[in-house]
Amino acid sequence: MAKRKASMPFWCVGNPVGDPFGVAIMDRLSSLEVCDILCWGKKEKLIDFTSAHDDDLVNWDPKNPEDDLNPNSKTHKTLKELKRRMDKVGLPMIMITCNLHTNPIFRNGGLTNPDPKIRILAAKKVMRALRIGNFFGAKYSTYWVARDGFESQFAVPWDRCYKYIIEGLNLATRYIHENNLSIEHGTIENKPNEPRGEMFIPTVGHSLAIIERLDEPDFWGVNPELLQHEEMTGLSASAAAGFTASLGKLFFLHFGNQKPNQFDNDNPPLIGMDGIKETVGIFWILDQLKWNGHVEFDCHVLRTDCAPGKANAIELRKDFIRMCVEALRMTENVADSINKDTKISKMQDKMWNADPALADILSDGDIDAIRRAKIDVDKVLKAPLGIGRLDLAVNRKMFGK
Length: 401
What we know:
single chain; five-stranded parallel sheet; 2 domains
């Protein structure tokens, strides 16, 4: 399988890495300084794309929601300079997402806020973010559930909250089409909790269900965060990848590492106590499905590995990019080696491709043929499957044996 293209977003590189119990450690960088690091990553042939929240690039003033349209504004001048630097090295911005979580005005949600005044502000901010994405030629726009959630079920207007999400996403689609923006598809990034106690769209399944209710379902897909968002509550990142890709709804994926049933670790890929086999499994599945979309990192430097100071602010972030890309390529190589192992393939073939004639009967839905089919029940019952032996063969390959 060819190496997939990689995107490193502004928010990953710009993150100074604080947490709820401690302040940020690394020096904060301006969006132009982050841009320079990303441009370095492009020149080093580590990354192919970048992405951003609107707030990663320029500040938002709710009292001036169309500042990006004023060529004399600081916002417009900053965006223009960012694009100049990115164009110089050929670094495209492939995705834009609207930040509806940082500003305290959205503390009770953006698209789903019960107050229509705040939903109007959210809509204006979304439209501004879409214009910014168009300025850079972005292909995708993502709706992350952010603060669209709750802590008390009694504070939610359940007869309207999902209607608000549908209205917000339909508005984004119409705005893109009516203004001929560059964005070709929207995606939903689900999450079970955090920063809210509960989210309105916690899983891939919820995302797909919402998409089917939108005015243009074909315009929308899912970009699950694997492993983090799926495994925070013990769900399977492998299942999320296989499900969305097999339905043609996996436009791209977010990538990092996670210890199951914990808070959102956002560790770099393969880094941490868990996740190696699950990560390899994801890319093996995507190889099986011939999925060749791009992989977007969504993680940050380990807080233990941060240090203050200007030199560290640059070099530690560069090393973070190197680590993420190395982990991606290592994973792809291991998944490819499993896929090409003839012993493993024979074991899978025995499991998956027995009795093709019977499989054809089922595919055809021929009821009479199904009724006539003779099955030796005792033989089927007594045949061992060998899944454990298959899994051990995969482990052996992963350990280089």
